[in-house]
Amino acid sequence: MTEAADRAFTIAIDGPAAAGKGTISKAVAAHFGFAHLDTGLLYRAVGAKMLLGMEPGKAAKHLTTEDLGSADLRTPEVAQAASRVAVIPEVRAALLDFQRSFSRRAGGAVLDGRDIGTVICPKAEAKLFVTARAEVRARRRYDELVAKGDALSYEQVLADVHERDARDRDRAEAPLKPAPDAVTIDTSDLEIDAAVRTAISAIESRLS
Ligand code: C5P
């Protein structure tokens, strides 16, 4: 194993829904050979349990890795539920240690979410803020949902995006915002390959 592979190196990638951070995070993790954690899944899993009637704080404390594997976590209902449980300080506190210890694992880690560069890993070696215009994000999400056979209209998806953005940005605890030292990538007018290349070169300049 090389020296670099033993090192902890954290890449924090934040941004609003459907800006492309999931795709960029996966590509970046594959490029550098780092482990990847989609932290939105933690909130989605808690949101899904709330929809089943469980108290969100309790659900967050007892979350297991099996809870993160369900395909049902990718629905619009669960996304909205996730952003509702994400405003609860007790939920955020229960998920903190897991995310922090993942971020310092040997061999490097990529975490994507809303508060990685600001709250979870303020000392991350590289920070990106991936964003795009709301209409572009809604169009991408709409196309994904149509491909899965969902019957939502574009207007509904756009309203959902605005609602979730507002809840994520305006909450008191760990609101969505770029860390002062984050590199912002606006993917509105970028092909995904170009966005990934921009992300990789921004991170490479921090690695050397
Ligand atoms: O990224 P994703 O769309 O899966 O996230 C679902 C919701 O989880 C977000 O709208 C946000 O409210 C919440 N979240 C968060 N902090 C994170 C990741 C996700 O509050 N680090």
Record the SSE blueprint:
Blueprint: H1 3-6, E1 10-14, H2 21-32, E2 35-38, H3 40-51, H4 56-61, H5 76-85, H6 89-103, E3 109-113, H7 116-120, E4 126-131, H8 134-147, H9 154-170, E5 183-186, H10 192-207
Parallel strand pairs: 1-3, 1-4, 2-3, 4-5
Bound molecules: cytidine-5'-monophosphate.
Name some characteristics of this structure.
binds cytidine-5'-monophosphate; 53% helix; 5 strands; globular; 10 helices; 5-stranded parallel beta sheet; 12% strand; 208 residues; alpha/beta
Structure description:
Helix 5 packs parallel to helix 9 (154-170). The protein has helices at 3-6, 21-32, 40-51, 56-61, 76-85, 89-103, 116-120, 134-147, 154-170, 192-207; strands at residues 10-14, 35-38, 109-113, 126-131, 183-186. The chain has 208 residues and is an alpha/beta fold. The radius of gyration is 17 Å and the shape is globular.
Low-confidence stretches: none
Total helical elements: 10
What fraction, in percent, of the residue positions are helical?
Answer: 40-55%
What proportion strand?
Answer: 5-15%
Give the end-to-end Cα distance, rounded to a whole number of Å.
19 Å
Query: Got a strand count?
Result: 5
Brief account:
The chain has 208 residues and is of the alpha/beta class. The chain has helices spanning 3-6, 21-32, 40-51, 56-61, 76-85, 89-103, 116-120, 134-147, 154-170, 192-207, and strands at residues 10-14, 35-38, 109-113, 126-131, 183-186. Strands 2-3-1-4-5 form a five-stranded parallel beta sheet, sandwiched between helices.
